[in-house]
Amino acid sequence: MSIRTTIPIRRQPRLIYDEGCGFCLYWVRYWQRLIGSSVNYAPYQEVARQYPDIPVTAFQRAVKFVTSDGKIASGAEACFLLFSHASCRGFWLTLYRRVPGFAAISEKAYAFVASNRAVFFRLSLLFWGPDYEPPRFELVAWLFLRVMGLIYLTAFLSFGMQALGLIGSHGIQPLSEFLAAARSELGPGRYWWLPMVFWLDQSDFAIRAACWAGAALSLLLLFDVFPSLCLLLLYALYLSLFYAGQIFMGYQWDTLLLESGFLALILSHATRPGIWLLRWFLFRFMFLSGAVKLLSGDLTWHNLSALSYYFQTEPLPTPLAWYAYHLPSTVLTTATGASLAIEVGLPFLIFFPRRLRFLAAYGILLLQTLILLTGNYTFFNLLTMALCLSVFDDAALRKVLPQRVTWFMQCHAKEIRPGKIGSFVVGSFALLVVSVGLIQLRAAFGGEISAPAIWLAREVAPLRIVNTYGLFAVMTTSRPEIIIEGSADAVHWIEYRFKYKPGDVMRAPRWNIPFQPRLDWQMWFAALGNLSDNPWFPRFVQRLLENSPDVMALMGSNPFPGKPPLYVRALVYDYRYSSLREKQSTGAWWMRDLERIYYPTTDLGP
Q1: Calpha distance 293→30 (Å, rounded)
Q2: pTM listed for this prediction
Q3: What three-state secondary structure class fits 547?
Q4: CA 378, CA 286: separation in Å to the nearest integer?
């Protein structure tokens, strides 16, 4: 006697839809491209006879999903069963089956959409396009990392050309003195609160080596050589320079680069999580930049007059800023309102469907382009533009880039999906970044922050992977400029010239993007305060009296090349743009009036 074993027949899962419905056809085509052949797709018009127990009206009312063991689901549940066959989308089915109330809400939402298919079909065409395909980000990720290599390169080279004059042993704020003070004050905690490689060596050679090593690693990243390792080392080196640079490295684009560099490191290990974290970062950065302007209570932003001052008072204007300043007041008022709308309103579209996301990116790109044309903000605008890449997808890039370029990128780009351990690490960092970002958003709006949240934000702060942003929260309405003069007899004075900041009224504003003259920038901030606010300034004057070669290399000219001056002083002038008539008659770009003494006449002493 033989025993026959019956093995249940498992069929391929099947989605049954209405081929007479444009909305159904649109999204079935999308899911076919995403999931592939693991699911069979069939219109009920062809297969309804195989399911005699299901009325035709039921097929017309909702999609059906037939599982491999023959069970049939309908409506929202059918959609979530279909989603479970796509990578990283099975959580929807888990929510449907495990979270109380989620199933009921999902079915009501499905019923609403199903009863208005024509409307939602038109919305699908409008928001996603006529031939929407599952978004891919291999090209976007590859291009973003190459752009990060370029930006890192400019940042390291820019600082490297100035480092010894700023923080070298004969610079304005010697690194060795700073570390000695930090060692005394912070003790063992200095390694966490000031994380940098310079605890090993703070010599001039170490400073130069960090800058040139960063430049070399940037080139390796640019050419896609060990990208993850390069990004880790670049982040560590720039974080070291950030702290070592003291007041000369405390700018928002430095923290922007550190945060972007850390997220780029995540992107190099996990493509899609990295893209979403970059989008979250772009939203938070842009929204905070606009929100702080409105929350500050500054009158110029509330009455939309901010740009009537901005082009004249910004730190290092370009030649085009002079012309922008003389635009009609109605144009400047409108531009101020548009800037606030782009910064506060458009970022929310980053989380909306495809074409609305693109609208947000185009608005941000337009704003950053206009800022770049009228102001020298080193790599700030270029990096913000690079972040906008995360809002697009590969299909969008193929439409704007030459075919040969996309072919080359396609040969080198690939989607990176980490394993279980990698996913856990990436997920942990993602949770940390998003949590601290939400804490900062809540704090910006005056919300109450719990003690654990404060502790978390404080402990993460030294790594600079999540930062606050908001340039020009309060608009500067006048332009004081510090003019430094030297003399051999305290009677006849000769003016020192800087490379880029306003001085000679006949000299046009200059371009310096992507280079950042950090001393010129710091002089702008120093002029807004007084000497007690800028303890670095006396050491700067001392270096001028010594004719320090490293510091003089930061200046535009040395009026005492052979012998250092015996005396130095600093005066504050009020600068304003020349009017159209003054420009035509005198050729001057600026007009200035003496205001006060900033630093009295001094010498090296006995």
Answers
A1: 42
A2: 0.92
A3: coil
A4: 18
- Between the alpha carbon of residue 24 and those of residues 28, 44, 48, 168, 433, the distances in Å are 6, 12, 16, 67, 38
CA distances from 84 to 54, 88, 418 (A): 24, 8, 19
Residue 527 contacts residue 572 (beta carbons within 8 Å): yes
Cβ pair 84, 13 in contact under 8 A: no
Say which residues have a Cβ less than 8 Å from residue 576's Cβ, sequence separation at least 6. Answer: 312, 479, 590, 591, 592
Instruction: Report mean pLDDT in 10-residue bins for the chain, 606 residues.
Output: 44 91 93 90 92 91 92 93 86 92 95 94 93 92 97 97 96 96 93 96 96 98 96 98 95 96 96 96 96 94 96 96 97 97 96 95 97 95 96 94 91 89 92 94 89 94 93 93 95 96 96 94 95 94 96 94 94 97 96 96 85
Q: Is 534 in a helix, a strand, or coil? A: coil
DSSP H stretches of helix in 115-251: 117-128, 138-160, 163-167, 175-186, 190-193, 204-222, 227-244
Count the Cβ atoms, other than its own, within 10 Å of residue 357: 22
Measured CA distances, 418 to 122, 143, 263, 274, 392 (Å): 37, 20, 15, 12, 22
